[in-house]
Amino acid sequence: MLSEKSRPIIEATLPLVGSRIGTITVDFYNRLFAAHPELLDGLFSRSNQRSGDQQRALAGSIATFATHLINNPGTLPEKVLSRIAHKHASLGITEDQYGVVYEHLFAAIAADLADVITPEIAEAWTEVYWLMADALIKLEKDLYASQANHKMWMPWRVTGKEPAGTDAVTFTLEPADDTPVTPAEPGQYVSVKVQLPDGLRQVRQYSLSGDAGTSRTFTTKLNDGGEVSTALHAGVEPGDILEISNPYGEITLRNGDGPVILASAGIGCTPTASILRSLAETGTDRQVLVLHADKTIENWALSGQMTADAARIDADLQLWLESPHPGTNHGFMSLRELDMPTDASLYLCGPLPFMKKIRDEAIDAGIPATRIHYEVFGPDVWLAN
């Protein structure tokens, strides 16, 4: 809970700090990597730094957290914190690193707001930072403790590499040592670490696209500028060893007996395919609506798996394709003409504009926002918009 001393200060300065936080975070990362270049080796993504996604995600999370403290006294934005904590745990963030971040973030804040900052303002924003940091540290400790082992990275052997659609590849893996394996839940992801040609190690999260449990299958699209995906597609073959994290991610299939709607676009079908597989494996009698959008039928990375699993449980499968194809909808996905069960749980994954559009349409159709769950690949820049 934000103290009564700090609350009016944060309320008064939030518009200014919010308007400057984007510039502040850019300076912060410059300071951080100048002092700790080792953090770019196996922790922070160079691609996300170049694109600005990491800076926007940090700015959005700080602004969202501070705004919540003002508008909802005595509570914390639990869903936002949970999403961040899972991503942090998948990267192996440690408690001591929050002190490092604090040092360089507040140096950037002091430099940017040098004309207006006072000791009282600095103290109030320090309180906001450590309220957020302490909440994340607690969540991350619990996530680490819930795993079947206490390792950050485990060796997994690639047993299969198969084309998936026109520009994606599905990798299957098995444990390469006797480290206990944490069962994954449908919809979760793992971090994959690879060494690039220049020697730097980089990490990216990939949703598990096949069976959950103790197996590991993920499908990755070859993205322009994506260093990890490029390395996987070009340089990894069956028999190779990859470093894989334990499974994380809080967008998992909720228990219940209500309808389930799985909506995805492009490679965003990977977590929804895993959820659909789990429903098919258990022979669910829940109403299931599977919605997917793609450029062409050939681009749909997991078409065979999802079509077969939908048929096993008599799910309603509908496609939207930019290129016309018999039996499909032409153009971009829309919920406007669909009969949407308002007691459904909606699981959503795809490009950010797609998710915003579908979420808005789902809410307009009567589905409560609390029943809409979404997964973001990479930094959660949704918070920054």
Characterization of this structure:
The chain has 385 residues and is α/β, with parallel strands linked by helices. The protein has helices spanning 7-35, 46-51, 53-71, 78-91, 95-112, 119-145, 227-235, 269-281, 303-312, 352-364, and strands at 154-164, 168-175, 189-195, 201-207, 216-221, 241-244, 260-265, 288-294, 316-321, 329-330, 345-349, 372-375. A six-stranded antiparallel β-sheet has the order 4-3-6-1-2-5, sandwiched between helices. A six-stranded parallel β-sheet has the order 10-9-8-7-11-12, with helices on both faces. Helix 1 packs antiparallel against helix 3 and helix 1 packs across helix 5 (95-112). It is globular, with a radius of gyration of 22 Å. It starts with 6 loop residues before the first helix and ends in a 10-residue tail after the last strand. The relative contact order is 0.12. The model is unreliable at 381-385 (pLDDT under 50).
Keywords:
single chain, 385 residues, alpha/beta, six-stranded antiparallel sheet, six-stranded parallel sheet, disordered C terminus
* Arithmetic mean of pLDDT: 93
Strand content: 15-25%
Q: Cα distance, first to last residue?
A: 25 Å
Radius of gyration, whole Å: 22 Å
Order of strands across the widest beta sheet? 4-3-6-1-2-5
Please provide the ordered H/E string of secondary-structure elements: HHHHHHEEEEEHEEHEHEEEHE
Number of helices: 10
Number of strands: 12
Helical percent range?
A: 40-55%
| Uncertain stretches | 381-385
Helix and strand arrangement:
Layout: H1 7-35, H2 46-51, H3 53-71, H4 78-91, H5 95-112, H6 119-145, E1 154-164, E2 168-175, E3 189-195, E4 201-207, E5 216-221, H7 227-235, E6 241-244, E7 260-265, H8 269-281, E8 288-294, H9 303-312, E9 316-321, E10 329-330, E11 345-349, H10 352-364, E12 372-375
Helix pairs in contact: 1-3, 1-5, 1-6, 4-6, 5-6, 8-9
